[in-house]
Write a structure and sequence with these properties.
With about 475 residues, the protein is an alpha/beta fold. The protein is built from 19 helices and 18 strands.
Length: about 475
């Protein structure tokens, strides 16, 4: 018997859906708030969840990712009276369907029947195969969803577009798709589209025959032909010239390529995976990227989260990278202090995982003879950034207290008191981290020596010793 969870603050809607579930031989559970619904979903296996979007407590959409990540991984049908607003976001997070109130029971029952049939087929199929992660580290909800997408993409030969900021690991995910696919025994060809010279791009991609141009003294396979039987990964595909995009589109459609100087085309069988850190839809709208090519490469899209949105993975990534570098440099394993991790998690990481790896390598080079990594081994710019963040956080907390107490329009003298208090706390923390060393404090904070001494005198910290 399938289990159906209904999360809606309207008792009448809950009653109607409960009756429908009963008619379809399902067991129904009701919850009148998102919190109550999540509590039930955590402790009771569910096949289907009906989720309303509007509650007095907030937006039901907020719990959708967590619902989908519960052990039973239920399908979710969004059901609400707020129109189609939020539908796109719900689908993006994995909702099965979207039904608007008032609704006909027939349309709800049809969607429900399809869900239950899908769940039965899924239960009868072979169990999941362990995914080869290809060096992808992390267990956060955001990265787990991406790995689920990798598993789905690996089961087909459909074109995949991987999007995400620079340094988020797009090539790792592309290789994971290849490694988990039926093509894993064959080649994985990487093409860095951003580094292809425009005058040579076609020869590099499509190859050439002997005598096709001056210096072509033998036939050479292009990268597309080299991917025959395997996977072709086009990194930063948004950098390709429009003329090349047109020719590639035909190659992708026909799976045939004509080398430069060749009389006929050559058949190629490859799986296409592309990646970009640019918005290809915006580029297509401004005629900088072919819309028909976008449709061809984006049968499946995997959007990678930036590191700042999955900070819970930083510790695992750091430990993995540190161990790898310690083995690589034959320096013995290092311990890592809690304070070191605190500095790492305080950063925003605009360069994402790639930037984190560079910082870790720098730390190990600095701590080559030390048994443990501590904050002093982190490059000074990152330690200074943490100090500034703590200082701004203290000021923000003080300001929020003033607003909560109805004191947003405080007189200027009192505001100055708040400001001075934040400034003094910042200086005290700065001197602690610098162990009382004024020169080091200036390096960490970017404050000039004369300005530092002026501030220390102002706050009676001139005699501070750690």
């Amino acid at each position: 018997m399938a289990n159906v969870l209904i999360i809606d603050d309207d008792p009448d809607i809950c009653g109607i859906l409960e009756e429908l579930a009963s008619r379809m031989a399902c067991r129904a559970f009701k919850a009148y708030s998102p919190e109550q619904g999540m509590d039930l979903a955590r402790h009771q296996a569910c096949d289907l969840v009906f989720l309303d979007l509007q509650f007095p407590e907030g937006d039901g959409l907020d719990i959708l990712p967590e619902l989908l990540a519960t052990p039973s991984k239920p399908e979710v049908i969004i059901i609400t009276g707020s129109g189609v607003q939020g539908a796109e976001l719900a689908f993006k997070h994995g909702a099965w369907d979207y039904v608007q109130k008032p609704f006909q029971l027939s349309e709800v029952s049809l969607s429900m029947s399809r869900v239950l049939a899908y769940r039965r087929e899924k239960a009868a199929s072979k169990g999941p195969v362990a995914l080869k992660r290809s060096g992808i580290i992390g267990e956060s909800l955001a990265i787990t969803r991406c790995l689920d997408d990798v598993g789905k993409a690996s089961a087909t030969d459909a074109g995949v577009l991987i999007t995400g900021e620079t340094g988020t690991g797009k090539e790792l995910f592309a290789y994971s798709i290849h490694e988990n696919s039926r093509r894993s025994e064959n080649c994985f060809i990487v093409v860095d589209c951003g580094s292809l010279p425009e005058t040579l791009v076609e020869g590099i991609l499509f190859g050439h025959e002997k005598g096709a141009f001056t210096g072509a003294d033998s036939r050479k396979k292009g990268l597309v032909e080299q991917a025959d039987g395997g996977t072709l990964f086009l990194d930063e595909i948004g950098e390709l010239p429009l003329n090349t995009q047109k020719k590639l589109l035909r190659v992708f459609q026909e799976k045939r390529v004509r080398p430069l100087g060749a009389a006929r085309e050559v058949s190629v069988d490859f799986r296409l995976v592309a990646a970009t850190n640019r918005n290809l839809e915006e580029m297509a709208a401004s005629s900088k990227f072919r819309l028909d090519l976008l449709f061809r490469i984006r049968a499946i899209e995997i959007s990678l989260p930036p590191l700042r949105e999955r900070k819970e993975d930083i510790r695992a990534i750091a430990l993995h990278v540190i161990q790898r570098f310690c083995r690589q440099y034959d320096m013995g394993m290092k311990g890592v202090s809690r304070e070191y991790f605190d500095v790492l998690t305080a950063q925003t990481w605009p360069g994402n995982v790639r930037e984190l790896v560079n910082v870790l390598e720098n730390s190990l080079a600095t701590a080559i003879h030390d048994p443990m990594l501590i904050p002093k081994h982190v490059p000074y710019q990152y330690r200074a950034a943490r100090l500034k963040k703590e200082a701004s956080g203290t000021k923000a907390e003080t300001d929020s207290v003033a607003v909560e107490n109805g004191d947003a329009d405080l007189p200027l003298p009192l505001l100055n008191v708040y400001r001075d208090d934040c400034e003094k706390r910042y200086l005290h923390r700065l001197l602690e981290l610098a162990n009382g060393d004024r020169v080091k404090a200036c390096t960490l904070s970017g404050i000039s020596m004369s300005r530092l001494y002026s501030l220390l005198k102002k706050h009676n910290l001139s005699s501070f010793k750690h």
